[in-house]
Specification:
Layout lengths: L2 H14 L12 E3 L3 E4 L2 H12 L4 H15 L9 E7 L5 E6 L36 H12 L4 H14 L1 E2 L2 H9 L1 H5 L2 H7 L12 E2 L2 H13 L2 H5 L1 H12 L6 H6 L3 E3 L2 E5 L2 E5 L6 H13 L11 H21 L10 H4 L2 H9 L27 E6 L5 E7 L9 E2 L4 E2 L40 E5 L2 E9 L3 H14 L5 H6 L3 E2 L7 E3 L5 H9 L4 E3 L5 E7 L6 E5 L6 E4 L1
Parallel strand pairs: 17-18
Antiparallel strand pairs: 1-20, 2-10, 2-21, 3-4, 3-11, 4-7, 5-6, 8-9, 9-14, 10-11, 12-13, 14-15, 15-19, 16-17, 19-20
Helix pairs in contact: 2-3, 2-5, 3-4, 3-5, 5-9, 13-14, 13-16, 13-17, 14-19
Bound molecules: 6-diazenyl-5-OXO-L-norleucine.
The site of 6-diazenyl-5-OXO-L-norleucine has 14 residues, from loops.
């Protein structure tokens, strides 16, 4: 069956079934040749500029990522890390690991309080929270292995944006207002984020970041290693020494991004390329797709309780495995082959009932899920006219991460160490409870959920997706793929459609409030314990337009992004 026929048949099935819920949505952006969908318009434009100058998707991705560190710096930046999935038109594919790593002086129980009065939030809001940043090395590896333009050229749009500044939108201004107290408490951040009147920059004000511009200019002049061995490194390490952090010159000098083989799976005849460990995202995305592949989903419709129940069960099973098996493969063997194996999925599927939720046998105590995860990690997709494709997720972890800016550099320090199990049984920021496989060891990478993914068909990129939202990245990417590929939704509908999320512990089904009462009832009747609230995830995706040729792009309507092409 050709792809267009395949999709047409999906659509005809959809046509006859009643759809229980619909997304308030817009039309996807159409462009015949190239498309960039990022979470910020300035960054999308930075990438388009590089494509117009003759760069390829890899070049554009570097420019977008660096620009996002400027115009959406609360989500990702030079002080953070990233995972990149790239697939070139000639079939070469790679997963680039630019994830932060624990400093060599980190230790397993470093965050466990000793005295009653000790702080319990050091893995989030202190210099100790920062892993050795990997973003710059990851982007440099992408550029040198797959790009065509010199690195300094790709830094220019971000450097210019930091230099001349940009007018703050509501979205950024709200974030600054919300996190103002934390930022005010750190002299370096106060310097960056507060205007001359001592107030956080507000909507409509021009926000310039001269220190960050100077740091980017140093990368331009001396190359990406400057970050790890040059003045930037010195400033970062001096700061760490003076403020009780662990990252030192040796940590930075030893940091290397890694090029890994992508995980490859399949879903209904499509090939799915995604991120291997040290992210858990790709393995569990494939695991859940394998489970769901055994059902005929399209007749249920995208918002039906029957469909959502099956997704919820697959999610719960996958996250049970995540806590048990997933950690940095450089330290612990991870059974990736089994997790992504069709037979294993079949076994798991056989434990699912279509009528009743299987509760976690010994559910953990309900934990108070952090309610504001709206400004965080970032994902974008780039495709070029040659069929090269990049799917990239970058992060500093939580919104504004540590809230600490290295003085004189404009660099916000990540708090990726919180992705480790920082204390046995203690949930991390995202409520995830892990086991020994993800405990801190020197040089080990904290387990991630980032899931940059490229689906191919007939050896060509078909669908790119990924997202932000901690563990919800994995399930939001899953639902985007399934909503598009099974339910035949447009890519914008697939992205905007109300989402659910389950992560094994706590035994909850997180449900966006847009799901109507009968759908929620259908889930309750099957034994799910519902927690109604916002998705706390953001997806950007691009799909091939199989009718006209070209691309359809979608930035999540939950955020302020833009999908634009030409
Ligand atoms: O790598 C991870 O899984 C997390 N550090 C991602 C953080 C994130 O998505 C923040 N968004 N809510």
């Amino acid at each position: 069956m050709t792809l267009s026929l395949f999709r047409a048949s999906l659509l005809s099935i959809l046509w006859v079934c009643a759809v229980a819920v619909s997304a308030a949505t817009r039309s996807p952006s159409y462009a015949p040749n190239v498309m960039i969908a990022s979470a910020d318009t300035h960054a999308t434009r930075a990438g388009l500029h590089i494509l117009e100058q003759g760069g390829n998707a890899a070049d554009a991705a570097v420019a977008v990522a660096l620009a996002l560190g400027v115009s959406e710096g609360y989500s990702s930046g030079l002080g953070g890390g990233c995972f990149i999935l790239v697939r070139m038109a000639d079939g070469r594919a790679a997963a680039i690991d630019g994830r932060e790593v624990a400093p060599h002086r980190a230790s397993r129980l470093m965050f466990v309080p000793v005295n009653e009065s000790d702080r319990t939030d050091l893995s989030l809001y202190s210099p100790l929270a920062a892993g050795v940043p990997g973003q710059v090395a990851g982007l440099e590896l992408l550029a040198s292995s797959f790009g065509t333009l010199p690195f300094e050229y790709l830094v220019e749009p971000a450097a210019a944006l930091a230099d001349t500044g940009f007018v703050l939108n509501d979205y950024y201004a709200d974030a600054l207002r919300y996190y103002a107290d934390r930022l005010a408490a750190d002299p370096g951040s106060a310097e960056v984020y507060f205007n001359e009147l001592g107030a956080p920059f507000a909507r409509g004000e021009r926000f310039k970041q001269p220190d960050l511009a100077a740091t980017l200019r140093r990368l331009q002049s001396h190359g990406a290693r400057e970050f790890y061995t040059g003045e930037t490194a010195t400033r970062l390490c001096d700061f760490m020494r003076d403020h009780g952090g662990l990252i030192d010159e040796q940590d930075l000098a030893n940091y290397r991004a890694k090029q890994l083989e992508p995980l490859r799976g399949s879903y209904r005849g499509f090939e799915v390329l995604t991120m291997p460990p040290p992210s858990s995202g790709g393995a569990h995305l494939l695991q859940m797709l394998n489970i769901l592949e055994g059902y005929s989903l399209s007749p249920y419709g995208p918002g039906s309780s029957a469909f959502l129940h099956l997704c919820a069960e697959a999610m719960t099973l996958a996250f049970a495995d995540r806590a048990e098996y997933l950690g940095d493969p450089a330290f612990t063997p991870v059974p990736v082959r089994a997790l992504t194996d069709k037979a294993y999925a079949e076994h798991l599927r056989s434990t699912i009932s279509t009528d009743a939720h299987q509760a976690q046998p010994s559910p953990g105590p309900a934990w108070d899920y952090e309610s504001r995860l709206e400004h965080h990690t970032t994902h974008f997709c780039v495709v070029d006219a040659m069929g090269n494709a990049v799917s990239l997720t970058a992060t500093v972890n939580t919104p504004f991460a540590t809230g600490i800016t290295v003085p004189g550099t404009g660099i916000l320090l990540n708090n990726e160490m919180d992705d480790f199990v920082t204390e046995p049984g203690k949930p991390n920021y995202f409520g995830l409870i892990g086991k020994a496989v993800n405990e801190i060891e020197p040089g080990k990478k904290p387990l991630s959920s980032m899931t940059p993914t490229i689906v191919t068909y007939s050896d060509k990129p078909y669908l790119l997706a990924g997202g932000a939202g901690g563990p919800r990245i994995i399930t939001a990417t899953l639902l985007t793929l399934v909503n598009s590929m099974d339910h035949g939704l447009t890519i914008q509908q697939a992205v905007d459609w109300p989402r659910i999320h389950a992560q094994w512990m706590p035994d909850r089904l997180y449900v966006e409030p847009e799901h109507p009462a009968d759908v929620q009832d259908g889930l309750l009747e099957r034994g799910h314990i519902l927690d109604i609230g916002p998705a706390k995830s953001r997806v950007q995706a691009v799909v091939a337009d199989t009718v006209r040729g070209g691309w359809l792009g979608a930035a999540d309507s939950r955020g302020a992004g833009a999908a634009i092409g030409f």
